[in-house]
TrEMBL record:
UniProt record, GO biological process: proteolysis
GO molecular function: omega peptidase activity; serine-type endopeptidase activity
Organism placement in taxonomy: Bacteria, Pseudomonadati, Verrucomicrobiota, Methylacidimicrobium
Top-level division of the source organism's lineage: Bacteria
Organism, as annotated: Methylacidimicrobium tartarophylax
Record-linked Gene3D superfamilies: alpha/beta hydrolase (3.40.50.1820), TolB, C-terminal domain (2.120.10.30)
Pfam families associated with the record: PD40, Peptidase_S9
Gene that specifies this protein: APEH
InterPro entries: 6-blade_b-propeller_TolB-like (IPR011042), AB_hydrolase_fold (IPR029058), Peptidase_S9_cat (IPR001375), WD40 (IPR011659)
Domain Peptidase S9 prolyl oligopeptidase catalytic, residue spans: 425-638
Keywords of this entry: Hydrolase, Protease, Serine protease
The protein's enzyme class: hydrolase
Name of protein: Acylaminoacyl-peptidase
Length: 651
């Protein structure tokens, strides 16, 4: 499993010589495949998957998964070895994205917000009685799962900001009567909590003045807290678990290294032991045994995800799985006894195929494919690339070309959100849509992206609209210099931070791109800073280190805000926004649309009244990508599905 992120962090490719050599090579015409490959219908790519997210019950008797019911994703359950599949939830409008089994295997829990406001409630479905209960029916309160260990079958641990909207306390949820009781009260600066294997809250990560952070632990819930690790604003890390005997704490830390390492700290002596490290890449995931808690494997995300194993049996299991299927292996879930796994095989051209696997017997049984209709179509492979930016910093990314394309084609520079995130190798419905319509797709992990160590992340400090932006321009020039892209048909597109980067590209370097598509992108960094969700407040110091302070750096943030250069935008722009977005408020889109329309500049605006930071409702998602497909076909000359005119959203 990938490492979980704190709730506070949800905000948050030689060029010259190689270009000359490639530009000197004769270019061939594009293969007919680029124009004659069958169009993949939008619904096949963007409707809800047929089945996804298999979860084996802790007792190993049942399987739960997500599948459409009433038009959106709901939880279905079947008995293993039988075909008695049936839905157990009845959500409408917005499908379920996050669910899990109760530790006693008798209930299913799921998280759901209202209209995209991100204030998740926790719901419980008793499978014996079919009763659905909202366990956190509190207004403007957000809940996260802290722990659901089957060894503690009587309760769950939850994080909730009921007492104070800015901070999360830890609560115990009794499964016998659904009662909540406070287990750990946040003093005001704790970002993350960590429980030991006895469900005692014994470690925490706190934010200190000056964007410093510290990890503290205690020997018992009655003992005083003791600082065991700390770092300044240029470092990163966090607690990720306790050793099997609860005597040591596992943390991630970049202190003394470039990339985040997995360390073990003996809580009595303070001795630190390095368990896993890479000089260039952060630890991306850890795998532990569900019952013994032994560390089994650690992953690093280089060009692709790569595992380092600590248990020979787990290595043997992964080797066997890899010999049976060409896709990248992921463990979706395991039962408590570790006798049955639900595994996924996926790749850049395979969204996901799920299997049951019994490692002791080496028995693999097909469950289902997430998008079986895609098996009828050829998909475009995604290739890792790297190149130096203009200042010499090595950038990594991914290149996807239309099938059969060997000459210059229209391109889309697809910018990831975050920005403290990264693009990864694998299946992307948006990338496949663009490639299928005849566009090359370029994704670059610009400075500030995560996963490549602290030097790379810190290189993005105060570079919104600066070097983070010139990295994108360098990526475009790389694609043009290598003969992949037609420079006169090159769009920029992104969501969230990628939306900001789209606006910045069109406003700050007019003429560089042919058109732009953005969703939920901040246009004014000052108003963005003043309107963050309350539970991001403990992270404000670090946020302002990365971006800038609205009080101390008002002129700087004004200069880096596309809103105040909107009059320079001269190419067509499509903007989409969720009205209930709590991260990037509707005003961020409204104000730049208004500024452009006052000057008669070309902008289309889609406002979705029932969405937040992302398009969850299937009809809204299809509407946005229909509009995108038509917009790009009009301005770049690619293909579009006939009869797929976009409906009229609120404007």
């Amino acid at each position: 499993m990938r490492l979980p992120f704190s709730p506070y962090w949800s905000l948050l490719v030689l060029l010259f010589l190689a270009g000359l050599l490639q530009a000197a090579m004769p270019l061939r015409a594009a293969s007919p495949d680029a124009k004659t490959a069958p169009l993949i219908p939008l619904r096949v790519l963007f409707e809800e998957p047929k089945r996804a997210s298999p979860r084996i019950s802790p007792d190993g008797r049942r399987l739960a998964y997500l599948a459409p019911h009433q038009g959106v994703l709901n939880v279905w359950v079947r008995s293993l070895g039988k075909k008695n599949d049936h839905p157990v939830t009845e959500e409408k409008g917005r499908g379920i994205r996050s669910f899990f089994w109760s530790p006693d295997s008798r209930s299913v829990f799921y998280l759901q917000d209202q209209g995209g406001n991100e204030n998740n409630h926790l719901f419980r479905v008793d499978l014996d009685r079919g009763k659905r209960t909202d366990l956190t029916p509190f207004k403007d309160v957000k809940v996260h799962l802290q722990a659901d260990d089957p060894a503690h079958a009587r309760s769950l641990l939850l994080d909730m900001n009921q007492r104070d909207a800015k901070i999360f306390d830890v609560y115990d949820l009794s499964l016998s009567d659904n009662r909540l009781s406070l287990r750990a009260e946040n003093p005001g600066n704790v970002l993350e909590w960590e429980e030991d294997h006895q469900y005692a809250i014994r470690a925490r990560l706190a934010m200190l003045p000056g964007a410093r952070q510290e990890v503290s632990a205690r020997s018992s819930i009655d003992a005083p807290w003791k600082v065991v690790a700390s770092w300044g604003p240029d470092e990163s890390g966090g607690a990720v678990g306790f050793s099997p005997d609860d005597r040591s704490l596992w943390i991630l830390s970049s202190v003394g290294a470039n990339a985040e390492r997995l360390l073990e700290i003996d809580l009595e002596s303070g001795k630190q032991t390095t368990l896993a490290e890479d000089p260039h890449y952060d630890v991306a995931a850890i795998l532990t045994h569900p019952k013994t808690y032994r560390l089994e494997a650690v992953a690093f995300e280089r060009e692709k995800l790569e595992w380092r194993f600590f248990e020979p049996q787990v290595r043997e299991a992964f080797d066997y799985l890899q010999s049976q299927h060409p896709g990248e292996v992921t463990i979706a879930s395991r039962d408590f006894s570790d006798r049955t796994w639900a595994v996924a095989f996926s790749s850049d051209i395979d969204p996901a195929s799920f299997y049951l696997f019994r490692p002791q017997e080496k028995k693999l049984e097909f469950l289902f494919a997430s998008r079986p209709e895609l098996a009828s179509y050829r998909l475009a492979p995604m290739e890792p690339i790297s190149f130096p930016a203009r200042d010499g910093l090595l950038l990594h990314g991914y290149l996807t070309l239309p099938l059969g394309a060997t000459g210059k084609v229209p391109f889309v520079l697809l910018v990831h959100g975050g920005p403290w995130a990264r693009d990864s190798w694998g299946f992307s419905p948006l990338v496949q849509l663009l490639a299928n319509r005849g566009y090359g797709v370029l994704q670059v992990n610009f400075r500030g992206s995560t996963g490549y160590g602290k030097e790379f992340v810190n290189a993005g400090d105060r570079e919104w609209g600066g070097k983070m932006q010139t990295d994108l321009i360098d990526a475009k020039q790389w694609a043009v210099a290598h003969g992949y892209a037609d420079p006169d048909r090159f769009a920029v597109m992104g969501m969230s931070y990628g939306g900001y980067a789209t606006l910045a590209a069109l406003a700050f370097v007019p003429g560089e791109f042919t058109c732009g598509v953005e969703a939920m992108g901040p246009s004014n960094l000052l108003t963005l800073s003043h309107s963050i969700p309350p539970y991001w407040e403990p992270m404000r110091a670090l946020f302002e280190k990365r971006l800038g302070s609205p009080e101390k750096d008002e002129a700087f943030l004004h200069e880096r805000s596309p809103l105040f250069a909107a009059g320079r935008i001269r190419v067509p722009l499509l903007i989409a926004q969720g009205a209930n977005d709590v991260r990037v408020k509707q005003a961020e889109s409204d104000q730049i649309v208004e500024a452009m329309r006052k000057q008669g500049l070309p902008v289309e605006y889609l406002l979705f009244p029932d969405e937040g930071h992302g398009f969850v409702r299937p009809e809204d998602r299809l509407q946005f990508f229909r509009a995108t497909e038509k917009f790009l076909a009009q301005h770049l000359g690619g293909r579009a599905e006939k009869g797929a005119e976009p409906k009229q959203a609120s404007r």
